[in-house]
Automatic annotation (TrEMBL):
UniProt similarity note: Belongs to the ABC transporter superfamily.
InterPro entries the record matches: AAA+_ATPase, ABC_transporter-like_ATP-bd, ABC_transporter-like_CS, ABC_transpr_LolD-like, Cell_div_FtsE, P-loop_NTPase
Source domain of life: Bacteria
Name assigned to this protein: Cell division ATP-binding protein FtsE
Gene expressing this chain: ftsE
Quaternary structure and partners: Homodimer. Forms a membrane-associated complex with FtsX.
NCBIfam families per the UniProt record, alphabetical: FtsE
Molecular function terms from GO: ATP binding
Species this protein is from: Sinobacterium norvegicum
BP GO terms, sorted: cell division
């Protein structure tokens, strides 16, 4: 599903965020991405999303060479990738339902299909009864679940998460990670960037480590 071959990323400031990073993540695998602050985790995820372009090397996602992808195809590429952020990035002038529906509205799905898929996603994360509430009325953990529902509502083949438990207590963090496992078990490829070493060491998934922009190790 994801292949990095000697990928480097140097910003215009001269900062080299990634230096010849290589790894493969097969389809339907769940992998944790770890490393110190500034190790290059967020840059790596941005490259997969085509929010950034590599300075060198090759990135293949779902069989497509991202370096060769023209600008006009980027929106279609992003529809295949669900993204969960640490700070939720929810819209507080809309209901929970409307927040989750946003990707489907952008894609032009009919209202009946939107309703069915949004409620299925909310049910999956345990928030169906909150669909009419404003997200600001929810706890931090519940807001993160809304973000996850929004990320998976269009049934992406790949799910990326950037520090999704950074603002949560250990119990809620474990619940969120197990929710990612549930999506992985139904065939979604999952890549989670996180600092929570204790939590991921308690889970049976491969760990990809970055250090100063380079691959520091790949666990099993």
């Amino acid at each position: 599903m994801i292949e990095f071959d000697s990928v480097s990323k140097r910003y215009s400031t001269g900062h080299e965020a990634l230096n010849r990073v290589s790894f493969k993540i097969p389809r339907e695998e769940m992998v944790f991405l770890t490393g110190h602050s500034g190790a290059g985790k967020s840059t790596l995820l941005k490259l997969i999303m085509l929010m950034e372009r590599p300075s060198a090397g090759q990135i293949i996602v779902d069989g497509q060479d991202l370096k060769q992808m023209p600008q006009r195809q980027i929106p279609f590429h992003r529809r295949k990738v669900g993204v969960v952020f640490q700070n939720h990035q929810l819209l507080f002038d809309r209901t929970v339902f409307d927040n989750v529906a946003l990707p489907l509205i952008i894609e032009g799905h009919p209202p009946r299909e939107i309703g069915r898929r949004v409620r299925a996603a909310l049910d999956k994360v345990g928030l169906l009864k909150y669909e009419k509430l404003n997200p600001i009325a929810l706890s931090g953990g519940e807001q993160q679940r809304v973000g996850i529902a929004r990320a998976v509502v269009n049934k992406p083949a790949l799910l990326l998460a950037d520090e999704p438990t950074g603002n949560l207590d250990p119990e809620l963090s474990a619940e969120i990670m197990h929710l990612f496992e549930e999506f992985n078990q139904v065939g979604v490829t999952v890549l989670v960037a996180t600092h929570d070493i204790a939590l991921i060491n308690s889970m049976d998934h491969r760990i990809l480590s970055l250090s100063h922009g380079m691959t520091a190790g790949v666990g099993t």
